[in-house]
Design a protein that fits this description.
Layout lengths: L1 E4 L2 E3 L4 E3 L13 E7 L6 H21 L5 H5 L5 H7 L1 H20 L8 E11 L4 E9 L8
Parallel strand pairs: 3-5
Antiparallel strand pairs: 1-2, 1-4, 4-6, 5-6
Helix pairs in contact: 1-4, 3-4
Length: 147
Amino acid sequence: MKFISAGKRVEPRRVGYRSLGFGEATSLETTPFELLIAPGELAQGFIQCADGFISQCRDDDLAQGFADIVQLQRLGYPKFEDLLANQPQLAAGLIKDYLYFDLLHALFPNTSALALVINEIASVLVAKSTVTITGLAFPVDHRHSAH
């Protein structure tokens, strides 16, 4: 996994995410980031969450009589790893629209000694060898943090 912000590599254990107000405008100065993840680096916990989400979609669709995500229904509600390999655009869309917190929580569990906090995700691209996520992050100013 490689995290780059403002042209510099940042240690992933020094990256967090904004759980409250995620995606909302901030008065803090933000910098663009790019996160590159090999599919094998996706935490098993995230894969299980994604599979659970797909299973819940199937159950909800059956209960309501129509599909919210038609493409998932057409594909027979496959496992998430199958989507990564065979339906990269759908996998990217699920991450961007529904699974981003699950992914961020799996990749960035640390909440202390952070250098950057992810504020929003702009794009998710899934290719054979890499999941690429771009967005905006803001630096953590340790001079003003309460300890």
